[in-house]
């Protein structure tokens, strides 16, 4: 944690950490504390005094059907995005790991989507999924009216899930590939000598050794889909049609920023923050005990 | 590969081929659409043969999306975030590794925990702070009655204000703090042999001299890896610029892209929109592909 050889200076270390600690205080802790405070008060949007209302905001939140609807939508979005992107990434990583010829080409081509801004990817996908023009429009040529994400909620959901999964495949792929390549070849070779086929080797050796990576990515993906869906949804659907893609993060933004309901939005923020913190905590504590480590 | 398995090898290359196609599909479609004239892009099904109008569409997108102004903003924001993050993170990591001071661990954890507080979940209060970055200080003074004390003693009312909305400071400063970068620098500094600091001390170098003349030059690879990640991160910022800019002169490219999406009552000129999308996507893609080695290293480093 710390060097044996240290410099002695009373003031300097404080000055060195000052810039970052100040920024963290002003832009992270202060707003988070503010959200917490607002969630227990009734806050007038254009100034004036706040009124302490205890748990009223939360009570209102948890009795609102729209909130549960939005929570359900978030779950669907998070589950499918995580499932599709981790599944495909794992599949691709396993096969890229097998390849000898062309490894660099495959890796390079699979790398670049990471660099694409979510809103830019969203614009491209929006064109592809347009009902009247673009790529998916041919469906409507064959069966008129079968595909319209601007009107049908399920179509819109499918569209944002595909865009969000595509966007996060690369990140998962890089971690899975690194995890696979860190597994000592001797383990797999020994099993092969004992007569285990490729599938058996994967199930009994490779996957258990890959499980730390797997759980790390699982938590990252779920928390990311809570938060990073914002860019994609704001560009593609604005939470619509009829609230069908209104995930929690987007609802916070809409209620607080557009609807100016500071207290209600803050209560939602606090719940989501608690959820993210809880997930991260689960990752650190609980899951780590139940998986294999290579060391 | 361990055994000769011709069938499995064929399957491998087939699956990877399909995978590559799927991953490249959006870019290919965007590219083809960007090269087509308007009449061809609204055809159903759209052709997959590129046309010859890429330049015309790009010029149209450039003008319609005001890419000149926005491009400058994007570059300033990206580089600002990049330098800010690296400066803050390396200084903090240096203090945490090479000094023993009270609150050392507290500072480390304070920064590390911010990983769990993404901007998306605290949008509104962060916006309030951006309206006046000195607000926390002001309210602290108010609570401690120091404002009243000073007003009583000197007759001066303390009213601190620093508005970050629609400024370059607003676009960059709040993103200077980085738990990932601080953590990476710390990990790296811990691997540096103790003898270096010892030798530097014996030769009479102070801590700052050691930092600038020994530690930073040694961190070159680390900084390169971080820079790639931070470039992508900075360029692709969306929510934060969206919140704090209202002035069209302060918009960034990623935000401006939205204006190119044809709305219901306009001509659906998707070819222009796709040309604009390609231009916005390009800089970070080039950085990642050219500096691939550093990119992977920076990304994986954040895990540990």
What does this structure look like?
The complex is a heterodimer of chains A (295) and B (304). Chain A has helices at residues 12-39, 56-62, 65-98, 103-111, 118-128, 137-142, 153-181, 185-193, 198-227, 229-236, 248-258, 262-289, and strands spanning 41-42, 51-52. With 295 residues, chain A is mainly alpha-helical. Chain A has one domain: MetI-like (MetI-like fold). Chain A has a two-stranded antiparallel ribbon. The model of chain A has no long low-confidence stretch (mean pLDDT 83). Chain B is mostly helical. Chain B has a domain at 67-254 and 282-301: Orthogonal Bundle (MetI-like fold), CATH 1.10.3720.10. In chain B, 69% of the residues lie in helices and 0% in strands. Chain B has 17 helices and no strands. Chain B has helices at residues 6-35, 38-41, 54-64, 67-98, 104-113, 123-131, 135-143, 146-154, 168-172, 179-190, 194-202, 207-218, 220-235, 239-244, 253-256, 270-290, 292-301. In chain B, helix 3 crosses helix 16 and helix 4 crosses helix 10 (179-190). Chain B is flat, with a radius of gyration of 25 Å. Chain B starts with 5 loop residues before the first helix and ends with a helix. The chains are: A mainly alpha (295), B mainly alpha (304). At the A-B interface, helix 1, helix 3, helix 4, helix 5 and helix 6 of A face helix 1, helix 4, helix 5, helix 6 and helix 10 of B.
